[in-house]
Fold this sequence. Notes:
This protein is α+β, with helices and mostly antiparallel strands.
Amino acid sequence: MSAGGGNRLISVQPDELKFQIEFEKQSFCDLKVANNTEHHVAFKVKTTSPKKYFVRPNTGVVQPWDSCIIRVTLQAQREYPADMQCKDKFLLQSTIVPPNTDVDELPSDAFNKDSGRTIEECKLKVIYISPASALGNSEDEKNSSQSSSAVQRLKEERDMAIRQTHQLQQELDMMKRRKYRKGDPGFSFTFAIFVGIVGIMAGFLLNLTLSSPSTE
């Protein structure tokens, strides 16, 4: 049974172990083990390659509705795996134990199916990630964030230009009404100059609005 694939006693996240491989450097992955029952649940972690990994804690007891973190550390590698492929597997076994059971009090056959206990098993596969892939993902996230910021900034500038255009149009309408009320010939010349300036500014702002990329 895979992680999260119908386990009744516990759930495990994430459902696979990912390690970034760097030459002669350790790498680790944390697993969250959650007890989904009202019982005390004991667990044990096993792997097909015990010499490559350091698991702490590899055995424990989780109280009802509680959780714990298991850190799995991949030992420093002296060479990169061929094609970055990994066939290592992990197995997390779990079983119900009496209340207030301490990990040191677990019987030797606690995770032995032949003991007659109900043992649930959760299998996890291992995935190796190259530094280049990790860097590429980081750059993609950075570029996406910068692109979103640029689009948001252009949208704000477009909205501001629309508001300013609307405001200038209102001022233009107000000047027209004032012109008709005053009926002053001298005022017409001043009004004409102002209308010209407003028209130029409105046209500029309108072009800015139309040239801004659509965010839809």
